[in-house]
């Protein structure tokens, strides 16, 4: 069997150029849907909008919307992932301004706690009720969306351990526990467990997390004592 002749270079370039153009058009259309949804959340102070409202605002077609999203849930998931990724970048940048590893970790914890508290702005809406619904129904999607934040906190914890200011442990697992603690505490803001309307502060959350990650790790094969 004779080998097929190699595709001419000009043809490969033409196909690649066409593919890139199609990809850029798709990205632009998706971004218009995302921007429209962000605007609606900002105006309404809630994620209670319809797909048709997003389509109308984006000046695109309903058919086009369903080419990229299965429905409103998938659009919200995209917004959620986008918000967490941006938050991770902002927290990493802010923490990098601190030369002391423990101060950097503290700043990251406090920033996340403040941003995850309930509120009318877009990030808080996505961090809040929608995130809790998603956690119950689609835990694997939540885990994937949180990965950028998880990596930031794992890096900061590892850096602090390398500097000797906290005990060495398992940075990714510690980061996951810190994220869960901080975000749950933020969502319960104002609902004190002791019955008093005294919101948990970012300082308290930091002290609690520090106690958890700075203690000595349990002996291998033995449970940690209370």
What this model shows, in words?
- The chain has 226 residues and is mostly helical.
- 70% of the residues lie in helices and 0% in strands.
- The chain contains ten helices and no strands.
- It has helices at residues 9-44, 51-58, 62-68, 72-95, 101-115, 122-127, 129-137, 139-162, 171-187, 202-214.
- α5 (101-115) packs antiparallel against α8, α7 (129-137) packs across α8 (139-162) and α8 packs across α9.
- The model is unreliable at 219-226 (pLDDT under 50).
> How much strand?
under 5%
| Uncertain spans | 219-226
Globular, elongated, flat, extended or rod-shaped: what is the shape? globular
Give the distance, in angstroms, between the N- and C-terminal Cα atoms: 73 Å
Helix content percent band: over 70%
Structural class: mainly alpha
């Amino acid at each position: 069997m004779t080998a097929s002749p190699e595709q001419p270079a000009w043809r490969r370039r033409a196909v690649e150029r066409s593919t890139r153009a199609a990809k850029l058009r798709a990205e632009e259309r998706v971004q218009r849907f995302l921007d429209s949804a962000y605007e609606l959340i900002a105006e309404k102070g809630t994620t209670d909008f319809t797909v048709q409202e997003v389509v109308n605002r984006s000046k695109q077609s309903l058919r086009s919307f369903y080419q990229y999203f299965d429905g409103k849930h998938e659009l919200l998931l995209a917004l959620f992932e986008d918000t967490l990724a941006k938050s991770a970048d902002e927290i990493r940048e802010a923490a990098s301004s601190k030369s002391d590893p423990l101060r950097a970790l503290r700043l990251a914890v406090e920033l996340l706690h403040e941003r995850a508290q309930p509120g009318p702005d877009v990030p808080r809406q996505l961090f809040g009720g929608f995130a809790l619904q998603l956690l119950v129904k689609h835990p694997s999607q939540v885990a994937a969306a949180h990965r950028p934040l998880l990596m930031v906190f794992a890096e900061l914890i590892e850096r602090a351990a390398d500097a000797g200011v906290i005990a060495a442990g398992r940075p990714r697992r510690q980061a996951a526990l810190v994220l869960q603690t901080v975000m749950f505490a933020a969502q319960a803001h104002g609902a004190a467990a002791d019955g008093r309307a005294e919101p948990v502060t970012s300082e308290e959350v930091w002290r609690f997390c520090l106690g958890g990650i700075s203690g000595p790790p349990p002996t291998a094969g033995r449970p940690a004592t209370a």
